Amino acid sequence: MRLSQYFLPVLKETPKEAQIASHRLMLRAGMIQQSSAGIYSWLPLGKRVLDKIATIVREEQDRSGALEILMPTLQPAEIWQESGRYDDYGAEMLRVKDRHDRDMLYGPTNEEQVTDIFRSHVRSYKALPLNLYHIQWKFRDEVRPRFGIMRGREFLMKDAYSFDLDADGARTAYNKMFVSYLKTFERMGLTAIPMEADTGPIGGDMSHEFIILAETGESDVYFHKDWLKADLLAEIDYDADLQPFVDKFTSIYARADEKHDPATCPVDDADLMTLRGIEIGHIFYFGTKYSAAMGAVVSGPDGKNVPVHMGSYGIGVSRLVGGIIEASHDDKGIIWPDSVAPFGVAVVNLKPGDAVCDSASQSLYDQLAAAGCDPLIDDRDERPGAKLAAMDLIGIPWQIVVGPRGMDNGVVEVKRRKTGETREVSTEAALTMVCAKS
């Protein structure tokens, strides 16, 4: 991608309405633009990050055995009336009427919709277990939307819904999602900690929030220091018995807790850590809450009809964009993990129009593209300092800077955004460095 032909409306000044780092940096980096309170347009750079996050989420859901569908944003009120949640959900639900005066709603979640799909097609326990998921826009009419996409009204979410014959089967599905979430966030360069949580309006009696560690997080999280190790998920297989793993990390080993009581904490003081955290995922087991109310039953091995046991599992895909920025930025801008960066490497031509710089920059760009390194070339007629500042602001993991002085000596400058380390090397060495680690 040539930056001279790209739509990247970066801002020099921080907008006054932006109160937290992710909101400030997403606006300054030209990733989003506010449409109305809590609702944003996603501009090209932001959309690339959003899509990369969604791809990782999708891949790990598929590996866990979940099947992707796509449910509508607008849902009929009748199915919510069946479950009993239509009146209970409150003012956060956006209620509308169609031209035939039928009650509709912009879905804040999809338990009713997916239960309706299930009951329309599944009759026997032999079709179980089943887990259906989608990645779809949702709307919750927050009374005070703030912090940009971190607490907006419209948001992109992955939600999955499991169906099992009994509580034991549902627990197996729950454990798979538990592990899937840890794997998902690890791939994004995040340390995610599961914490027992209230079920809220979703319902149920077993629930975990997944908290990512960030200095600017919403609340304190207490946890065992071993959660900071990178190898917690090594050798974990979805087909294995995951119960011992989940038990270990939800009892003594992890025991994340935002209401810390030293008298009851099972973690020794020497092993206890506390940092700030941000919720980016939530999983629930709620048994037959929806299936019993909506008649989602199957015939069991004995031929008798029984309501299926269900769980739901959400990841805030758009919220993750902000969460990653909160966890990874500095005073210059965003520091994207390689796996979700909008581009893998930026080739910065400091002197467009100079034949040697132009040729070297284009050659680097072509070779990086051929190697699958997802490059961006900054070929704008702009001051060198402004170009380098823009690359730091938007957080490209690698920068290869091509300038007349370097070309005279046969070298380019390679910068690693995460560490700030720079090295002058040949173009061939630059390609090896970047492509080996991208």
Write structural notes for this entry.
This protein is α+β, with helices and mostly antiparallel strands. The protein folds into 2 domains: 332 residues, 2-Layer Sandwich (BirA Bifunctional Protein, domain 2); 93 residues, 3-Layer(aba) Sandwich (Rossmann fold), CATH 3.40.50. The chain contains 12 helices and 22 strands. Strands 3, 7, 8, 9, 10, 11, 12 and 15 form an 8-stranded mixed β-sheet that branches. A 5-stranded mixed β-sheet has the order 19-18-20-21-22, with helices on both faces. It has a 3-stranded antiparallel β-sheet with strand order 4-6-5. A hairpin with a 5-residue loop joins strand 21 and strand 22. Helix 2 packs across helix 5 and helix 2 packs across helix 8. The two termini are 17 Å apart. The model has no long low-confidence stretch (mean pLDDT 92).
Q: Uncertain segments of ≥5 residues (pLDDT<50)?
A: none
Gross morphology: globular
Work out the helicity level: 25-40%
**Count of DSSP helices?**
12
Termini separation (Å)? 17 Å
* CATH class assignment of the largest domain: Alpha Beta
Quick one: how many beta strands? 22
Strand content: 25-35%
User: CATH H level of the largest domain: which superfamily?
Assistant: Bira Bifunctional Protein, Domain 2
Task: Summarize the biggest pleated sheet.
Answer: 8 strands, mixed
The whole-angstrom Rg is 24 Å
CATH architecture of the largest domain: 2-Layer Sandwich
CATH topological fold name of the largest domain:
BirA Bifunctional Protein, domain 2
| Helix-strand makeup class | alpha+beta
**Domains counted in the coordinates: how many?**
2
Average pLDDT, to the nearest integer? 92
